[in-house]
What we know:
Layout: H1 2-36, H2 48-57, H3 59-93, H4 95-109, H5 113-124, H6 130-152, H7 157-165, H8 170-204, H9 214-223, H10 227-260
Helix pairs in contact: 2-10, 3-4, 3-6, 3-8, 3-10, 4-6, 5-6, 6-8, 7-8, 8-10, 9-10
Amino acid sequence: MSAAIATGRRHEAWAVVVAPVALGAVGLTVWQLLVGAGIVEEYLLPGPAAIAGEFSAFLPAIASGAAVTGLNAFFGLAVGSAVAVLLAALAQAARPVDGMLAPIVAALAVVPIVALAPVLNTMFGADSQIGRQVIAGVAAFTPVFLGTLRGLRQALPVHRDLMRVYAATGWQTLRTVTLPTALPHISTGLRIASSLAVISALVAEYFGGPRGGLGGLISTYAAQSAYARSWAFVIGAILLGVAFYLVTAGLERLASRHRAG
């Protein structure tokens, strides 16, 4: 029995770690061969070797740009998520509030970033990062709001009735019953919102404002036809998004374990 379990774990490790790494290595090799043979023009898609060289040469600039973009995404994610949780709690407690917020949330979900970014950058000034943080917050709001609202409605009626019997206040019911039940749903919404916040902050950096972020640097080097360098900054943006995702995925796992415990 133990041998079968050990074999299953080895197969799982292969599926989770080794297989994706091997597939990625094959893909990069084929990509480099296509560029080296001239089948794919380097100005259209630089080879992995050229991108890796630029990434190594401009690593300090990539790290600096990631810090700017990451800070904008973090502030937007934190504020947007906090507002979403608060409004979801109000919507769950009062049906009129829920009806009032529904069209607003639907509208925020389809706000085009490419249209909103220039407006906010103009509103807050060319040297301000606030417009980008607002855009990241708007992008993060909807998934966290919907996840929180769904989670808050998962509490069993018998638990709510029990709190009423003990003459608990609305805040006590929210803190001890409703919110712990909703925590896994909130963390799932946060995981989804984290990637949206990073993407939105990157896109917002294309439309004016300070040029220190990754999005602005990608645009600058692409305009200069330094395509390998531009792709190196794209890799930095991907790594930033993965970092946000992994952190929020870890929080989601902790929330699930807390509820199971």
